[in-house]
Amino acid sequence: MNMIKVIFFYSFASLILFSSNCYAFNNTCEKIYEYCFKNVPKKIITFHKEINQEGKINTNKINLRNFPVVNSSNSKIIKKLNKNSIVQIKQVFFIKPNTSIKIKLKNIEKYEVINNYRFGKWYLINYEGLDGFIFADFVTINIQNQTNQYLRYRHIDSVDWTNNKIKLQKNIELTLTMKNENSIILKGYAWHHQDGFFEIDTVFYKNILEKSYYREKSNKLFLFDENEIYLDFGANIFTGIYRKL
């Protein structure tokens, strides 16, 4: 009798696991919407990058979703993640925030209007073999183990004069020092063959309402991951993507 109970229990557990995996598979973007990229409706994506980092869930009972969307009936909760769960971050997506967007449905002349409100930055993560999307505010990535150490970045439009002595020179670099978990000291140096030398030295603070970036007045600093950042700055020469040196 006990053996029968054990067999029944494992059969039931296997059925739940199989159903969960099938459920996630059957709710892919390509089965619902006309145009998708990496299982996300194309029209809502502003930026995407593949990364490979470990993260930790910082809040209890967080939703792992099939899509990085919050107000659609097609966005399903795959699993609830507990605080301190360790996840593997595979990709980062910046979704258009506070904007209503019409998305064409698959094989039918109908549209769904999606507005993600403030939920702009999402991670595609893997947790115990299950892939899904989670809002970035609920995942902590340790981009630097200690404060008072700096990371150095170079603008992707910079010209490396040691390798290219013909192209007109333009060089922009930044250093980031983690002052604490809520603020970053940013120093920047730029040289342009026509406009001369520029310098910035300021502190960016984590935005309270939209934690996917740091802010200094109207300037914004996005930390995609340790190897790549984006700076939106008033002096245009500093605006753009930077890669770690």
Descriptive account of the structure:
By secondary structure, the chain is mainly β. It has two domains: 29-140, no CATH class; 150-244, Lipocalin. Helices cover 12% and strands 49% of the residues. The protein contains two helices and 19 strands. Strands 12-13-14-15-16-17-18-19 form an eight-stranded antiparallel β-barrel. The protein has a five-stranded antiparallel beta sheet with strand order 10-9-6-3-11, with no helix packed on it. It is globular and about 55 Å long. It starts with a helix and ends with a strand.
Helix content: 10-25%
| H/E series | HHEEEEEEEEEEEEEEEEEEE
Structural class: mainly beta
Average pLDDT rating: 80
> What ranges have pLDDT less than 50 throughout 5 or more consecutive residues?
2-26
Q: Distance between termini?
A: 65 Å
Number of helices: 2
Q: How many discrete domains?
A: 2
Major beta sheet, specifics?
8 strands, antiparallel, barrel
The share of residues in extended strands comes to over 45%
Quick tags:
19 strands; 8-stranded antiparallel β-barrel; mainly beta; about 240 residues; globular; Lipocalin; 5-stranded antiparallel beta sheet
Detail the topology: elements first, then pairings.
Layout: H1 2-26, H2 29-32, E1 36-37, E2 40-41, E3 45-57, E4 62-65, E5 77-81, E6 86-95, E7 100-104, E8 111-115, E9 121-127, E10 130-135, E11 139-140, E12 150-155, E13 170-180, E14 183-192, E15 196-206, E16 213-216, E17 219-225, E18 228-232, E19 240-244
Antiparallel strand pairs: 1-2, 3-6, 3-11, 4-5, 6-9, 7-8, 9-10, 12-13, 12-19, 13-14, 14-15, 15-16, 16-17, 17-18, 18-19
